[in-house]
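Check out one such.
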Amino acid sequence: MRILQITPRIAWPPTDGGRVVMLQVARALHDLGANVEILSLNPRKQRVDIAAARKALAPLTFDAIEIDTSARFAPLLRSFALRAPQLVARFFSPRFAAALRARLRDHDFDIVQIESPFLLPYLAIIRESSRAPVVLRSLNVEFRIWERLAARERNVVRRAAYRAIARSLRRYEIAQINACDAIVPIAEADALDLRALGCTSPMFVLPAGMAIDPLPSSGSVERPNAIGFLGSLDYRPNQDAALWIAQQLKPRMRPDLDLHVAGSRAPETLRERLSKCGVTFDGEVEDAAAFVDSMTVMIAPIFSGGGMRVKILEAMARRKVIVSTAIGAEGIDVTPGENIVIADDADAFSLAIESLLSDPTRAHAIGQAARTLVATRYSILPLVRGLLAFYDQLTKGRSVNSSGRS
């Protein structure tokens, strides 16, 4: 099966959940015998050296087109032409559209897999240039993220802005909900939400998966009383989590406990706030596994967002005990108290961390159960094998419909 994967940013290096998911799926498809080609946008704020990425992604066929998604004037004009919110229109590039046309003209694909609803403005080009079924790989119901952000925002102006963004994305996502031939959501809850919103297209729920190998040592030694948070810090739910750690959790913790926040592309204002509150900012860590291994407890105080938190799965795969909010653990088939600890406010979070630090045997048992869950439920190859079977049925259905026998 020949698959074209279209991504909103280069799926390397695997420093955030979106990149991890895109890369894991592409490599698993390849390992299972599919011929995978990747065409990516390379946004200025998340720019990656294309030659280095091409080398890292081999043997996958890969190319990318640079774009400035922070530009405002051009996306504003395009939003009218595309009938899409400005947040979506900023991902449209005439150069990328031309590269996509050329790729579809020169190759005969069985499936075109779009990795984000922000890439739906390219759907018309795909339809013009290919008869392949188009699948939307949905990591979130995007407007739900902004609804949750608005619900928690205290600043009146920002709350109004978040609500406006949520409304525009809601209209767009619902209008496009059946535009593709199938949707592959990351979580069962998202699939149910999409059905309730009117989706009638075929669906296959593909959770984020991990490559489960014998656990390699990162060479990092666990630091006593070290509590860590890791996430992409240009993503608003993660920024809010980092601020919550500094403002709500830190004052409730013992002075000898060492709170760490690590992640890429953190705004300077966030770095300053963390420093003022006594939280160690580790920045973009070169080795995420080493960072996780060096922590006694990993935390995920996420209060908005959707889909699945891949960083939680990665930490679970490394046998690390995790304290998370219920929202943070959404989409993962966890059992609180067995393979994760759930706490939804600062007092409960503080007590949960103290309890784990005072009982290392319990913390180790929860971490071991977490790895077992990932190995049995979220191993990437069995998950993607199911996706390939779904794609096989989708292409057979398209062939039958094209022949006029159905």
User: Anything to note?
Assistant: The first strand starts at residue 2 and ends at 7. Residues 402-406 have pLDDT under 50 and may be disordered. The chain has two domains: 2-209+380-401, 226-377. The longest helix spans residues 380-403.
